[in-house]
Write a structure and sequence with these properties.
Structural class: mainly alpha
Shape: globular
Order of helices and strands: HHHHHHH
Strand content: under 5%
Largest sheet: none
CATH class: Mainly Alpha
Radius of gyration: 13 Å
Distance between the termini: 35 Å
Length: 111
């Protein structure tokens, strides 16, 4: 994927629709390594969450975690989406994983 797509995917300036488009380019490019694709799934999950599409957000977080099983931020975001859906057991489990992989994550402790 192009550097422009990567910047739009991981940067904070992109609106959710542009981020989804840019991250999808990275995800679809099998030449990009698993770490880059995990980050793209993570960032796209966040964009889906911002758009209110929690099912797609959770699915992308699942993919990010499958590519990087110790991706604390992906567990945290998936936990947040589960909590938003009212599935507190899954949310707590994901927050616990986020803390296990990043004990200094104050956000996970606060949720």
């Amino acid at each position: 994927a192009s550097n422009l797509a990567y910047t739009a995917c991981i940067g904070n300036a992109a609106d959710p629709a542009r981020r989804i488009e840019a991250c999808t380019q990275i995800i679809d490019n099998q030449a990009d390594g698993p770490d880059k694709r995990a980050t793209a799934y993570f960032k796209r999950a966040y964009a889906w969450s911002m758009e209110g599409d929690l099912d797609r957000a959770i699915a992308d977080s699942d993919q990010a975690i499958s590519l990087n099983p110790e991706y604390a931020s992906a567990y945290y975001n998936r936990g947040y989406d589960w909590a938003t859906k009212g599935d507190y057991d899954r949310a707590i489990a994901d927050y616990g994983q986020a803390i296990a992989f990043d004990p200094k994550s104050s956000a996970a402790y606060n949720n």
